[in-house]
Amino acid sequence: MNGNLIVENATELVTCSGFTAKSGAQMADIGVIPDGAVVIENGCIGWVGPTRELPPDMDRTGFQIIDASGKAVLPGFVDAHTHFVFGGYRPEEFAWRLRGDTYMEIMRRGGGIHNTVAATRKASFEELAAAGRKRLDAMLSFGVTTVEGKSGYGLDLDTEVKQLAVMADLNAGHPVDIAATFLGAHAVPPDYKDRADQYIDFIIADVLPEVTARSLAEFCDVFCEQGVFSIAQSKRLLQAASGSGLKLKLHADEIVPLGGADLAAELGAVSADHLLHASDAGIAGMAASHVVATLLPGTAFCLKEPYARAREMIAQNCAVALATDLNPGSSFTLSIPMLAALATLQMGLSPEETVTALTLNGAAALDRAATVGSLDPGKKGDLVILEYPSYRFIPYHTGVSVVEKTVKDGVLVFDKTCFEAPNASKST
C-alpha cells in the first residue's frame, strides 16, 4: 500500500502520452509500446518503456510486481461529466419517455430535475455519501480513477452546499479523485418560476460566495438551454463565477441549437458538454479557443436523440472527450464499455480516438492533463490492466467491461480476479 508498483510484460502498454488535450488527427496517436512496462514509485510514474529496457539492477524491494503478459495496460479512465451525488431515482420517467414523452415535457410538468431536487433535499449528508461511495466503487470496477461530480440537485443554498460537501468528504476518503463542479443553475426552481433572472441574482449573491469561500468547487457550470437559462443569463453567471476564481463549463446545445458552444468559446471555458446541436460556427469557435468538447452519447441513446457530430468536430480540429453523464434521469449509467460502444458504433470514433477521449482528453476537460490521463513520468500512477492483449477489446467486447485490475496512485484498488464465482456444483 506504499504506492510502489512495477507492471511489466504488457502485450500493449498504451501511454496516451501528452500533457495537454489532443485535437483533430492527433487523437489517433495513443503511443502503444509492445511488451511494455511502467514503474510507479510513491504513487507517481517514474519510468515507462519496453520491459527489456528495465534497469537490470533495479532494487525491487518494497515494490508490488504485476506480470501483465497477454494483457493491455492503459491510463486510468477519466469520466469528465457526471451527477453522481443525488437522492432518489426516476424509473417512471424512463417509461414515460418510451411512450413518447420528451425530456423537456416531463421537466415542464414538474418531473425531471425537479423530481431529483426534492429527493436530494430530503436526503441526509450520510445518505448521499453512502450512495455516492457505492457509485464510486462501481466506477473503479470500470477503470475510472478520476471523475467529475456536479451539484445542481439542490437549487438552494443548503442543498447545493450539502452536495458539494459530500463530494469533498468522498474525495478525501475514496481512491477515485473527484473534481467538483457547482451547477446551481441546473434548472429554475418552482419558487422562481418565470423569474430566471432573479434566480441567477440569488445564485450570484448568495450561493456562489459560500461555495467559493469554502473552496467546495473547481468549476461552475450552467444548463444553457431553451426554457432553462438563456445565453445572456448563462454569460452573466459564468462571468461572476470566473471573477470568483472558478473555471467554467457549460451544458451547451443539448436540446436545441441555442449557441452554447459559441458562448463557451467566447468565455474560454475549459469544456462545453453535450453539444448534440452545436453549430458549425460553434464547433469552429471551440477549436480555436481550445475548449474541450465533452460528448455524452449515453444521454443521446437514452433520450433517443441524434448523437453529437463527433467526426465533424475532430475534422475541425476539436479536442473531443467522452463521459457517461451519470444521473438518475437522462443517463442512469456509469458503464464505460457502453460509452465506448456508442462512441465507435454510433458516432464514428475509431478505437484509438475513443481511448484518447476517455483518458488524456477527459483529463483536459477537467484541467488535469498535467497530472493524469496518460502514462508519462511525473504523473499520478493511475492505470488499468485489461483481461485481453489489446485496447481494441474495449469497444470490441461490446458492452462488457474488460478491466481486470485498476491501479490508483500506485495502489491496486480493484482486482476482478479476487472475485470468484460461487461454486455451482451440487452435493449428491
List keywords for this structure.
Urease, subunit C, domain 1, alpha/beta, globular, TIM Barrel, 428 residues, 2 domains, eight-stranded mixed sheet
Explain this structure to me?
There is one protein chain. The protein is α/β, with parallel strands linked by helices. The protein folds into 2 domains: 119 residues, Urease, subunit C, domain 1; 287 residues, Metal-dependent hydrolases (TIM Barrel). Helix content is 34%, strand content 21%. Strands 1, 2, 3, 4, 5, 14, 15 and 16 form an 8-stranded mixed sheet that branches. It has an 8-stranded parallel sheet with strand order 6-7-8-9-10-11-12-13. Helix 9 links the parallel strand 11 and strand 12. Helix 5 runs parallel beside helix 6 and helix 8 runs parallel beside helix 9. The chain starts with a strand and ends in a 13-residue tail after the last strand. 54% of the residues are buried.
What's the arrangement of secondary structure elements?
Elements: E1 5-14, E2 32-41, E3 44-50, E4 64-67, E5 72-75, E6 77-79, H1 91-98, H2 103-108, H3 113-122, H4 125-141, E7 144-150, H5 157-173, E8 177-185, H6 196-213, E9 219-224, H7 231-243, E10 247-252, H8 260-267, E11 271-274, H9 280-289, E12 292-295, H10 297-303, H11 310-315, E13 320-322, H12 336-345, H13 351-358, H14 360-364, E14 383-386, H15 393-396, E15 403-408, E16 411-415
Parallel strand pairs: 1-4, 1-5, 6-7, 7-8, 8-9, 9-10, 10-11, 11-12, 12-13
Antiparallel strand pairs: 1-2, 2-3, 5-14, 14-15, 15-16
Helix pairs in contact: 4-5, 5-6, 6-7, 8-9
